[in-house]
Amino acid sequence: EKYEKGLEKTRTSFTSKINELVAKYRKVDEDFFEELEELLLQADVGFETVMELMEELRFEVQRKNVKDTSQVQSVISEKLVEIYEAGEDQPNELNMQEDLTVILFVGVNGVGKTTTIGKLAHRFKEEGKSVVLAAGDTFRAGAIEQLDEWGKRVGVDVIKQAAGSDPAAVMYDAIRSAKSRKADVLICDTAGRLQNKVNLMNELQKVHRVIGRELPGAPHEVLLALDATTGQNALTQAQIFKEATDVTGIVLTKLDGTAKGGIVLAIRSKLNIPVKFVGLGEKMDDLQPFDPQKYVYGLFA
Ligand code: GDP
Questions:
Q1: How confident is the model at residue 117 (pLDDT cuts 50, 70, 90)?
Q2: Ligand 1: which residue has its CA nearest to atom 22?
Q3: Taking the model in full, what pTM does it have?
Q4: What is the pLDDT of residues 228-259, one digit of tens each?
Q5: Ligand 1 environment, Cβ below 6 A
Q6: For binding GTP, which residues are annotated in this chain's numbering (predicted)?
């Protein structure tokens, strides 16, 4: 139900338009296909994915001898799930360790990174894990306080230094501290000012290096937060971060705020990085593990 509610905007626009289409045409023909194609493009599924989907849809419709437009919906859902699940075998679950798991968060300011860290910390706490946060965004005014607030709200400690200090030093402290208190998870925030791309990327690489030196094998996940409402812009950001650091998963935020939920599929096929979580609201428990089946069927629910 979380999925259905969170995807309401995408769902209502998508589902009602598909229903209109089905009612309008009744018989599957070329005009129907063309309008359907347009609809999928509007939902930000992405050009290539839509083309692929349409080709397979035509094939399936012929193979199964589907004549009635009302039968096309289930074929669409099946194909969308297939497209998502195709490609490299990448787990949607986090790579959790026996002892300390370090998760590094990256992403541009405003995408919902801090909120997601808070939500994820809450999730881990609910699972009975002990969590520490690292305030690695020492650049943006207010970032440290904001993370601190989330720490208080969720009830976990935040390792921080003064604004303007070296983020790598914060990570050094945070790893030591998480190790000494035998924490299960350390979640690290990082700066997200894309205006100075080279500096940002250097900083991320340094942070990554320091974490790996203090705890070999860490970070175990590098999660990129992307704002679903920014559409194709999110894809561009992902390309940039992918070049700079080894992104292991994506958290797609603000899916509740857009009618273009098809972006999940575009991300998957364009970047080949698994979507691990989706943000479906501003509250603590509005973070859901991404499940392609639930997601796609949520669109048609
Ligand atoms: P940051 O700059 O990337 O750390 O972004 P913030 O965590 O400060 O979030 C920016 C804004 O987006 C805040 O107002 C959040 O409440 C909001 N936000 C974050 N995630 C979601 C989400 O999944 N859904 C909605 N509707 N709002 C979100």
A1: very high
A2: 254
A3: 0.90
A4: 999 888 999 999 999 888 999 999 999 988 88
A5: 107, 109-115, 192, 253-254, 256-257, 279-282, 286
A6: 107-114, 189-193, 253-256
